[in-house]
Amino acid sequence: MAYSLGLTLYNLSNRRDAGGVADRPPRPAGRLVWLHAPGADAARSMLELARRLAEEDGLPVLLTCPDHLPPRDGILLQPPPPDTPAEARAFLDHWRPEIAVFAEGELRPALLHDAMERRLPLVMVGARNPCFLRERDGWYPGLMRGLLAGFHSILALDEPAARAFRKSGAAPESVTVTGKLEEESAALPHLEAEREALARQFATRPVWLAAALPEAEEAAVISAHRAALRLAHRLLLIVVPQDPDRAPALAARMEKDEGWTVAQRSEEQEPDPETEVYIADSANEFGLWYRLAPITFMGGSLAAQGCLRDPLEPAALGSAILYGPRPGPFGTTFGRLGAARAARAVGSATDLAEALGDLLSPDRAARLAQAAWAVASDGAEVTERVMDLIRRIMDGDA
Fold first, then answer.
1. Listed GO molecular functions (predicted)?
2. Which residue in 88, 120, 276, 351 is a FRET match for 241, CA 20 to 30 A apart?
3. Smallest Cα–Cα separation from 240: which of 294, 191, 300, 289?
4. Which residues, other chains included, contact 338 with Cβ-Cβ below 8 Å and sequence gap of 6+?
5. With contact defined as beta carbons under 8 Å apart, do 125 and 103 qualify?
6. Residue 322: strand pairing partners
7. Same-domain status, 388 and 352
8. Helix, strand, coil shares of the chain as percentages rounded to 5?
9. Are both 364 and 386 inside the same structural domain?
């Protein structure tokens, strides 16, 4: 059969990847759900799914992802095993999951073949396009078709994605268009007493935030603030430097070259009505600043190595987003925000100044922020549908 030949060729090509893996923690008792995300971006929705399965159903959940993820209470986080027959067997022998849920479309043939041999139910969610591992891509006759035929359900993002899976070999009746899953909330915590106190100090002043601002972009932000002050003389800029040690030099530069009144949070200086720049350099308080600033510029995205903060953080807290042409690791997220007209792209310091001036109109900033919030919070119905599918499969009702 073509499938057997394709699998053999794939496994032969993977001999160089055979090797040991890190020690695995003990398997928790009871039924176990295994979720797999091909990267940190896909892991957002899988983490939310894992959280809900653990909290609402009391199920142990294993989430595998090749990218490092911060620890989460109640969720086992592990790298996926090397995709060889021996490592696949060892992985499945150890964890013995009752169901496997893959995201986006990444196929790991050795692992999936062993799962199919064990009659492990397979589900694909947030399905975009079927693909093998990037470093293992190639022509393996019948392999993709055979693997996709083994999936119980494939929940596609949209109709083009559904067509891609059907064309690649998935059973037509297994493919359904559902849309994207809900993502783990990006809303950062804050101290409400601090927010209330600062909101009283800011009163009705317009405020914008430069989040995680690198030294390479300081000039652009200064130029944009200078131009915007001509339109709104009471405008306050909050700067969170990428490097807190830059705060004194940045404050001196703004005071000397621009003649601005600057306050530094680490020095316990208050942003009084005459303050034009407030440098928030004390601790990681992004949740506070996103809540106070109706407009956020994403530092690192204009002239540095790439955006330094997750744009869904301000989106989840109602702040309109400005960003440059260098998304860094958040390209997919910015793509979603852009498609929803939920963020404003700028290509230069001049563009940043013009966009900031435009968003000083509260209704324009509010429309952008509302669209961004919708992007950050959609997908709850799809996640509920996936949870119901997982429950029915595990109970033998699907």
1. transferase activity
2. 351
3. 289
4. 345
5. yes
6. 297, 344
7. no
8. 45, 15, 35
9. no
In angstroms, the CA 179 to CA 379 distance is: 7
224 and 123 in a single domain? The answer is no
Query: Which residue bears the tokens 């992004």?
Result: 286
Name the H helices within 179-275: 192-202, 218-231, 247-253
pLDDT mean values, one per 10 residues, the chain (398 residues)? 89 64 85 95 92 94 93 93 94 97 96 97 96 84 95 96 97 95 85 95 94 97 96 96 96 96 94 96 92 97 93 94 94 89 94 96 93 85 94 91
121 and 201: one domain?
Answer: no
Helix (H, G, I), strand (E, B) or coil at 277: strand
Q: H/E element holding 101?
A: strand 99-103
Residues 6+ apart with CB under 8 A from 304: 214, 216, 217, 326
Q: Are residues 235 and 148 in the same domain?
A: no
Q: Do 325 and 343 reside in the same domain of the chain? A: yes
8-state DSSP, 212: E
Question: 362-377 and 349-359 helices cross at what angle (nearest 10)?
Answer: 100
Is residue 156 domain-shared with residue 209, that is, in the same domain? Answer: no
Residues 6+ away with beta carbon under 8 Å from 334: 307, 311, 323, 327, 343, 345
- Containing H/E element for 320? strand 320-323
Give the domain range for residue 296.
192-377
Domain shared by 131 and 41, yes or no: yes
So what's the pLDDT on residue 16? 53
Task: Tell whether 187 is covered by a domain.
Answer: no
